[in-house]
From TrEMBL:
GO biological process: asparaginyl-tRNA aminoacylation
Keyword Nucleotide-binding appears in the UniProt entry: yes
Keywords: Aminoacyl-tRNA synthetase, ATP-binding, Coiled coil, Cytoplasm, Ligase, Nucleotide-binding, Protein biosynthesis
Protein name: Asparagine--tRNA ligase, cytoplasmic
Localization of this protein: Cytoplasm
């Protein structure tokens, strides 16, 4: 090539393109790291490809050769098209950004302008009476003020908004129109904000539906407390499908939901129904201490704490204290918390539960069974007679059928036989609780035998199969608490009872108590208890004893059964179980 021609082309470098092994991503155009395409080479030098000696290789075994002119021309063309498109895209992006900024500015301007729109009450209207939403039907046609939380919100066009307001007592649909929808507060309203709404509750014409069959036509409204929007908006915190842990972390907000709030109301009505039942039977309520220094229900599952330098416990049961009040106030009951340091994470165990316990003097075992049965049925009757709890029960457990007296009465020994007859067996284990295997490596299954505790799973299977409430009676001495009275007809057994309900299993445990002083001392000895801390309990046998008995019912299990909830955790305000002690 002549010197003059070289100068004219101003070749300033070499670029390599290997169509087989090149790489447009990582290549840099050298012989070692060639590009894969001519287009990449052109792009690399911003289109000034004529200043370069471009070498191309199409087959791996071929040497590099100067790029064909036509191919170069085509690559330059493609580069120019690409450049034009990029320029257009950039221009559009600028336009989009400007448009978004304009929109935002317009929205801000609209919001600022909205600040100037101030609603005023019409003084010619009758004064609004503040009502709770439970009374909304009674106040139809009158001007009222209602206050509560924005449960649901729907904006329809510029001039209409629907707010479903919730005040804990009920919900009502409120209709806001015209200027009421143009204020700053209207434009920025969020779920769970608190508002007061004034207006008249009107019955809905046929064909239209809303909660309660009416809606509140707003004539004035105001915000009390605005809830956050954006990432922190209520609707972004959780959904019904969120993990159980997240739902429990947010339980303080979850309880605002329809189901959780219904359960809490139902729980309140049920607690009152228990109290009404005892009241109707002239049984007094006591509130025993929950900080104690004796154990009622055996050793392991108990929380201890430092009580001014001494060890004390959170009570497992108030039964022993209830026994002490019989000579003072007669039959007695309590509805307080009991605590069990349960290591198991089952759907029917809590670390803290509401325990409804009662104690009766001068009764027989049969009297006790009747009293338990009567209480369970009478509380069901009471919640069915209350329109609020009845509606909740029908919504949450539409197939519920009230249990009928008398409940099936079954002895523990019959339950063992039932398990045998129905082929419900257990895994044989060695002294270390490891399964024993047969020669083929399979676990060996054996029958439950008299004297053994019937665990939750077979007990549930039996109860669900039988499908009706069962009073399971007369458990062996070894598997029951120290204070239980032995059966006069068979000293291997106790006058004890568990109430089993389909779906949840045991909801109540009770027994006749040892009335005889010497027998009680023997029971302490049998269990290895030091009688000293129980002196006050023993004194009941010393200073005028009587045949007596009682029971404890787990309120959460009773509610889980009635409302067909999966777990006892679902019927607590803030459930406590292993690794969960907040909120
Ligand atoms: O069978 P339990 O342990 O009996 C007693 O505590 C007796 N001292 C009661 C008495 O006779 N006064 O418990 C009675 C009931 C059980 O049937 C169950 O419903 C409930 O209390 N319960 C629990 N509920 C939720 N979580 C737990 N960890 C529970 N432990 C017992």
């Amino acid at each position: 090539m002549s010197e003059s021609k070289q100068a004219k082309q101003e070749i300033i470098g070499k670029l390599f393109v290997c169509e087989v092994q090149g790489n447009d991503g990582e290549g840099i155009g050298t012989e070692k790291m060639p590009f894969k395409s001519l287009l990449k080479a052109v792009t690399h030098v911003n289109g000034e490809i004529s200043k370069y000696d471009v070498q191309v290789r199409k087959e791996i075994l071929e040497p590099y050769a100067p790029a064909a002119k036509a191919a170069l021309k085509k690559a330059v063309k493609a580069y120019e098209v690409q450049q034009k498109k990029a320029a257009k895209d950039a221009e559009r992006a600028v336009q989009d950004r400007e448009k978004a900024e304009q929109q935002k500015a317009a929205e801000l301007a609209k919001l600022e302008a909205a600040r100037a729109i101030v609603l005023e009450q019409d003084s010619s209207l009758p004064e609004a009476q503040y009502i709770r939403l439970r009374d909304s039907t009674a106040y139809r046609g009158k001007r009222v003020k209602v206050s509560g939380w924005v449960h649901r919100l729907r904006v329809q066009g510029k001039d209409m908004m629907f707010i479903v307001l919730r005040d804990g007592y009920g919900q009502i649909q409120c209709v806001l129109t015209g200027k009421q929808c143009h204020t700053y507060d209207a434009l920025t309203l969020t779920l769970e904000s608190t508002v007061s709404i004034y207006g008249v509750i009107q019955e809905l014409p046929e064909g239209k539906t809303a909660i309660g069959g009416h809606e509140l036509i707003c004539d004035y409204w105001e915000v009390i407390g605005k809830a956050p929007g954006g990432d922190e908006a209520f609707g972004n915190l959780f959904t019904a499908d969120s993990s159980p842990d997240l739902l429990l972390d947010q339980r303080h907000l979850v309880i605002r939901g329809d189901i959780a709030s219904s359960v809490l109301k139902f729980r309140s009505i049920t607690l009152k129904a228990f109290r009404d039942h005892f009241d109707s039977q002239n049984v007094f309520e006591v509130t025993p201490p929950l900080m104690v220094q004796s154990q009622a229900e055996g050793g392991s599952a108990i929380f201890d704490f430092n009580y001014y330098g001494e060890t004390a416990y959170l009570t497992q049961s108030s039964q022993l204290y209830l026994e002490t009040v019989l000579p003072s106030i007669g039959d007695a009951y309590c509805m307080t918390e009991s605590f069990r340091a349960e290591n198991s994470n089952t759907r029917r165990h809590l670390s803290e539960f509401t325990h409804c316990e009662a104690e009766y003097g001068f009764i027989t075992f049969d009297d006790l069974l009747d009293r338990i049965e009567n209480m369970i049925v009478s509380v069901v009757d009471a919640v069915m007679a209350n329109p609020i709890s009845k509606q909740i029960l029908m919504e949450l457990n539409p197939n519920f059928k009230p249990p009928k007296k008398p409940f099936r009465r079954m002895d523990y020994a019959d339950a063992i036989q039932w398990l045998k007859d129905n082929g419900i067996k257990k895994t044989l284990v060695d002294e270390n609780d490891n399964p024993v295997l047969d020669e083929n490596g399979n676990e060996i299954k054996v029958d439950y035998e008299f004297g053994e505790d019937i665990p939750e799973s077979p007990e549930r299977l039996m109860t669900d199969t039988i499908g009706e409430p069962i009073l399971l009676c007369r458990f062996p001495v070894e598997i029951k608490s120290f204070y239980m009275k032995k059966c006069p007809e068979d000293p291997r057994l106790t006058e004890s009872v568990d109430v089993l309900m389909p779906g949840v299993g045991e909801i109540t445990g009770g027994s006749m108590r040892i009335a005889d002083y010497n027998e009680l001392m023997a029971a302490y000895a049998r269990e290895g208890f030091d009688p000293k801390p129980y002196y006050w309990f023993t004194d009941q046998r010393k200073y005028g004893t009587c045949e007596h008995g009682g029971f404890g019912l787990g309120v959460e299990r009773y509610l889980a059964w009635l409302l067909n909830r999966y777990s006892v955790r679902d019927v607590c305000l803030y459930p406590r179980f292993k690794n969960r002690c907040q909120p």
